[in-house]
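Recall the central idea of this unit: under ordinary conditions, the amino acid sequence of a chain determines the structure it adopts. In this exercise we apply that idea directly, starting from the sequence alone.
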Amino acid sequence: MDIEFKGRVAIVTGAGGGLGRQHALALAARGAKVLVNDLGGAVDGSGGTAGAAQKVVDEIRAAGGEALANAASVTDPAAVEAMVQQAMDAWGRVDILVNNAGILRDKTFAKMSMDDFRLVVDVHLLGAAYCCKAVWPHMVAQQYGRIVMTTSSTGLYGNFGQSNYGAAKLAQVGLMQTLALEGAKHNIHVNALAPTAATRMTEGLMPQEVLDALKPEAVVPAMLVLAHESAPTRTILCAGAGSFEAAHITLTQGIHLGMGDTVPEQLAARLAEVTDRTGEQVPQSGAAQGTSEVAKAMARR
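Accordingly, the structure predicted from this sequence is:
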């Protein structure tokens, strides 16, 4: 099966450089019309210029593709709505949204200001939500959509000095889980990509020889699979240095202890049974937890 996007329209946020640029170039090379969004700011979100997005548009056009530039901040709902309308006015539809825009303001939690915490959450989480909200009615109307969230191993597993980034990135997974359920009847598939790539956001965080191995291009195949018409839904793909994995949020079989004054002590004594991963499941929705718990309780009657 060829992974191609002829006739499709894609919006890629944060596409003026790094991983987003590679996403935009790859989608265009495989036939998509691409709206390249980038505020053009620094890694910490300060400043801004339309030049970054336009440069990528020029690359796409020089290669024979079709693209438009947009410099909206994803934290501005009105600007995001206008960005989506720009694509609709030009091409009449929006098939793919890749939520890639992001910033870093790394510090240990003890030293981090809540303003820095809030801004990172605003860009990564609310920015993704604003973009999803803007494309959603169009995808519902055309009964087709593919949305790719950009999560992170920091969100999935933690990373020292990145509490704000990790919180926002795991929150994107939670958004993905529910949007995938709500979008299913409209043929809207929503997935998440956890990339490991050398970009300006990772400079200084890893040794140079490691950065050299982590070319952003190596992540792109996972994005293309998640953005394609054959994409799964509610899938978390991890990608880096040419390797691909999947991450899952699971639920163990657990135990039933009922209620009573000694339950805390019983739980502490048997915690290893609760955390035992034998027979764990990947729930189809949040209701699975309650269903499992009630079933165990009923079985004891």
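Residues 147 and 178 are 12 Å apart (CA to CA).
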